[in-house]
Amino acid sequence: MAQPVIEAKGLGVKFAMNRRRKRSIREMFIHGTKRDPNKAASDFWALRNVSFEVAKGDCVGIVGKNGTGKSTLLKMIAGVLLPDEGTVTVRGKVAPLLELRAGFNDQLTGRENVHLVGSLHGMTPKMLEDRFEEIVDFAEIKPGFIDTPVRHYSSGMKVRLGFALISQLEHPIMLVDEVLAVGDKSFREKCYKAIEKMLENERTMVLVSHNEGDLKRFCNRGLYVKQGDLVLDSDITEALNAYNVDTKAEIAARKKKDGGKAA
Amino acid sequence: MASRALAVWQNRKVVGLLVRRDLKVKYQQSILGYAWSLLEPLAMASIYFFVFGVLFVPGEGSARSAPGGPDAPGGYALFLLSGLLPWLWMSGALTDACKALITHAKLITTMKVPREIFPLAIVQTKFVEYLLTWPILLVFVFVLGGQTGWSLLWLPLAIVLQFAITLGFTLLLSCINVLMRDVERVIRILTRVLMYSSPILYPLSMVLNSGLPDWFKLVYELNPLVGIFQLHHAVWYPSEAPGTLSLCTTIGGAFLMLLIGYLTFRRLESAVLKEL
User: Fold this and answer.
1) For residue A168, what pLDDT is reported?
2) Strands A85-90 and A6-17, how do they pair?
3) pLDDT interval class at A23 (50, 70, 90)
4) Hey, which of B94, B104, B223, B269 has its CA 20 to 30 A from B176?
5) Cα–Cα distance between A100 and A164 in angstroms, integer?
C-alpha cells in the first residue's frame, strides 16, 4: 500500500480574535492591565482536530459555509500557514492555484513575469522556453501585450496568464481555491479541460469550491467542514448532501425567524 | 536549524531570481538606470566631504582628519568613501528590511518557500549594489593615490562580518515590522544613530583621543559596527586595523546578531504568516 500523498493529523490553527489594536506604550506602562483594549480578546480556533488522508490520484473537494476554514485548510496543506496543533505531511511538490496573480510584479512585462514566477515554482528555463508559446496562447494574450508591463493588463488577463502558467506545472499535487470562478464562460471551459487533462495522469487534487457542478465533475471524495471541524469524510455526493441539508435547515430557520418578526 | 539552512541553500536560485528582479525593476524604471548606483553615493560623499572635509577643517594636528595626517595617500576623500560605500549597503538593507515580507505578502501566502529567503534577497540585492559602486572607489584610489597591500585581506573579512550582521538585522526587522509597524519609523532614526556612532565620517582616533570618559570609549568600541568599518578603512589605511579585542567583539557581535535575528524570525514565523 502506497503512502498517502497528503496526511493531516489533528490539525488545528487559531487566530486572535477581537484584537482591535495594539496597545500604546503609554497604556502599557501607566495603566497596567486596566485599560487593555484586548482584554476581550480570545483565541479563535479556525480549525481543530482535522485529520484525513489523501491517496495518490484522489480528487478531494472541500465543502462548507463561508468562513469555516476551508481556505485555511488549503493554505496549511500548501505550507504557507503553519498549524498551531498537529502536523500535515505532504509527499510531493505542490502546485498552488490559490491566488493566481501571485508573484506577478506590476513593473515587469508579461514575459518576464512568466519566467520569474515559473522559475519560482521550480520550472527550468528550458521548460519555460518550450512552453512559453503554449502559455501565452492559452491565456489568450494578444501578441503585442506580452511585452507590456503587467500593470497595464486587465484583471482578466492577469488571472488568465497566471492560470496558464500554473497549469503547466507538473507537480503531482494541485491545490485549487475557487479560482475556477474567474474569467468568462469560454475561458472557464478551457480551464476545466486543462484540469481534467491534468487529473488524467494520476495527479492528486484538492479543490475548494461552492459550485456543486465543479465539485461533482472532478471530485471522487468530499470533506465537509463545519465550523472548524471536519464532520464528514466520504464521497463527494454524500458530503454535498450533508452540506445541503444543513444549508436548508439554516434557511428554514432564518425564514422562521423573519416570519416571527413580521407577525 | 541545519535543515533550514539547507532548505535556504536549495532555494538559492530563487534568491538569485529575486535579486535580479529587484535590480531589474530598479534600473528599468529610471532613465539613468545603473548610473544612479554611482551617482547616489557620489552625491552623498560630496555633501559629507563639503561639510566635514572643507567647512569643519579642524586646526593643526588633526587636519582633514584622515589617519596619517593630511599628506597620507588618499586623504579624507578616500577615507570617507571607503566607509560610506559599505555603509550605504547596510543602511539600504535596513530600510528595505522592514518591507521585506510585506511587499511579498502575496508570494508568501501562496508559495511554499523558506520565508528566510526574502530578507536574504534584500541583503544580497544591496550587496550587489555595493559591488557596483566599487568603480567609484577605484577611480578615487587611482586619482588620489590610495595604497594597499596585504591589508587588502581585511576586505573579505569585513564583507563577511557585515553580511552576517546585516542579515541578522534584516531577519529581525522584517518579521517584527509585520506585527508592529512602528519599527519602520524607528529604523529611520536608528540608521542615523548607527551611522554617526560608527567611524564612517571620522576616524576612530578622534573618539579615542577625545576628552570623553573612558567607559564611554569602551562602550563605543564594543559596537560591532565600529570594528567592521575600521576593517573597511584598514584596507587603505593599515593603521586603522582593529586590535584583538575589537576584532573579537566585532566577530562575536556580528554572529550573535545573526543568531538573534534568525531565532526571532523562527519564533515569529507562524504569527507573521497569519498576519500577512
Assistant:
1) 81
2) antiparallel
3) low
4) B223
5) 9
Cα angle A169, A164, A207; round to 5? 70
Q: Is the pLDDT of residue A19 over 70?
A: no
Whether A231 contacts A242, CB under 8 Å: yes
DSSP state of A124: -
Q: Are B190 and B169 a contacting pair, CB within 8 Å? A: no
What are the sequence ranges of the domains in chain A? 1-21+43-91+214-253
Q: Give me the interface pTM, i.e. the ipTM.
A: 0.74
Query: How many residues in chain A?
Result: 263
CATH topology (fold) of A1-21+43-91+214-253: Rossmann fold (3.40.50)
CB A6 within 8 A of CB A88: yes
Return the closest-CA partner of residue B234 out of B82, B35, B46.
B82
The residues pairing with A13 across neighbouring beta strands, listed in sequence order, are: A47
Contact assignment for B106 to A102 by CB distance below 8 Å: yes
CB contact under 8 A, A82 and B273: yes
Nearest CA in chain A to B11: A120
Q: Which helix (H) or strand (E) holds A143?
A: none
Using CA coordinates, name the residue in chain A closest to B181: A22
Which residues in chain B touch residue A81, judged by CB atoms under 8 angstroms apart? 109, 273-274
β-partners of residue A175 are A96, A206
Sign of CA dihedral B93, B94, B99, B101: positive
Q: Is B15 in contact with B116 (CB distance < 8 Å)? A: no
Other CB atoms within 10 Å distance of the CB of residue A185? 7
Q: How far, CA to CA in Å, does A179 sit from each of A118, A186, A225, B117? A: 18, 15, 19, 27
The amino acid at B261: G
Amino acid at A71: S
Instruction: Tell me the count of A-B CB pairs closer than 8 A.
Output: 62
Residue B63 is predicted with a pLDDT of: 42
Q: Give the percent of chain B with pLDDT over 70.
A: 93
Is pLDDT of A98 > 80?
Answer: no
Q: What is the pLDDT of residues B164-205, one digit of tens each?
A: 999 999 999 998 888 888 888 888 899 999 998 888 888 888
pLDDT given for residue B86 in this prediction: 92
Give the whole-angstrom CA distance, residue A221 versus residue B141.
71
A17 has a chain B CB within 8 A of its CB: no
Q: Is the pLDDT of residue B61 over 50?
A: no
> What percent of chain A stands above pLDDT 90?
0
Residues A123-173 pLDDT 10s: 888 888 888 888 888 888 887 888 888 888 887 788 888 888 888 887 888
A262 touching B, CB under 8 A?
Answer: no
Q: What are the chain B neighbours of A75 within 8 Å (beta carbons)?
A: 109
Are B112 and A79 in contact (CB < 8 Å)?
A: yes
Q: How far is B57 from chain A (nearest CA, A)?
A: 43
**Backbone phi, psi, residue B228, to 5°:** -65, -45
Give the DSSP letter of residue A22.
P
